[in-house]
Amino acid sequence: MTKSQRLFEEAVKVVPGGVNSPVRAFGSVGGTPPFIKRARGAYIYDEDENGYLDFVGSWGPMILGHGHADVLNEVHKACEGGLSFGAATAAEVEMAQLICALVPSVEMVRMVNSGTEAVMSAIRTARGFTGRDKIVKFAGCYHGHADGLLVQAGSGVMTAGVPDSLGVPVGCAKDTLSAEYNNLQSVKERFERCGEEIAAVIVEPVAANMGVVPPAPGFLEGLRKVCDRYGALLIFDEVITGFRLGIDGAQGYYGVTPDLTTFGKIIGGGMPVGAYGGRRQIMELVAPLGGVYQAGTLSGNPVAMAAGIAQLTILQEHPDYYEELNRKGDWFFGQIQRLLEEKGKPWQVNHVGSLGCLYFTGRHVGNYQDAKASDTKIFAEYFKHMLAQGIYIAPSQFEAMFLSIAHTQDMLGKALEGIASWLSQQAETE
Ligand SMILES: *Cc1c(COP(=O)(O)O)cnc(C)c1O
Questions:
Q1: 113 within ligand 1 shell (Cβ under 6 A)
Q2: What's the topology of domain 3-66+319-429?
């Protein structure tokens, strides 16, 4: 038995499912998860000293690769000064100024400790601002695990095979209207029925929790228009896309301006951080300035701020990194597509910049319904083959592959060889 297997045996006795987030479980692919001990650059290493080329990147944050020297250095320095004060610090001012400077739609920002918290708070703020209760979300979009958002919520929930969650009061979900991604008509219908009651539309500007589904041309612009017509707010959940598609996120990439934006993942450089912000007039409603209550003992934590500021500053100073990431993404996912065509496979590759996904379905994937058509049994075989080749992708069909600055052309080539060898094996067993 490997060390990881032994740890898993111990873990399941004291942690539900042996993992602290269900997306880490191997339930849908079989086997047990490697327990990771350390990481460097594009590689992670498990307790048995197996190295894996990592395409998860802690689900997005590690855009510079693992253990970036400058980030670690800033974290070490911050630790020396103390781990938490629960009082105002200079680092929080610097972080807020940085975010407001990088993302023009954000005039004021509040730091929190996770993406879930950021979204939950942004929605409360939108409800406070509009005096309305209902929100529109899209099937297959994930916005964290707050009660009202666990309605057709994508990846983790989807992989577990539970349509919703137990323990969510009917009253909490009743104000959540679900619409179809990339289908503006479905949004207009919700507004025609009860537009005066809708506080906000929340959307992942690139859906990255049902695999990767890019917005169709005009979709985000159309949401902006509908919201304006009815006086509802548009919230971009940029927990994944923020600082990934470009320094100004998906809103810069697609040129559509939301009223509120939520951040997480990259913004913390690997530490537990989230943030929400937007137009001054709206954010002025947040306590202690206004009547929308939201608080956090560890919010703006000095060590977390140090990691986030360091990572964002490096990204700000290197516009070339985004060109490189997007170019590598275009090449890598394009090569996967080419391999599939060579082998006569109808499967779909979706990608935007450094985010991508391979779906085992012959139908174009433009929404949740399409994504669900993917053959998860084939995915499980593909996953096992890749893991055995030392290539670590998320143990679910419905997650993105994340590239980082540390992924070299050679490394991506190695991953392509892994995919090619699996496709050849497939062809033999057919
Ligand atoms: C990961 C994610 C969240 C939740 O963030 P946590 O830090 O896991 O709470 C919210 N929205 C999107 C789009 C995400 O990808």
A1: no
A2: Aspartate Aminotransferase, domain 1 (3.90.1150)
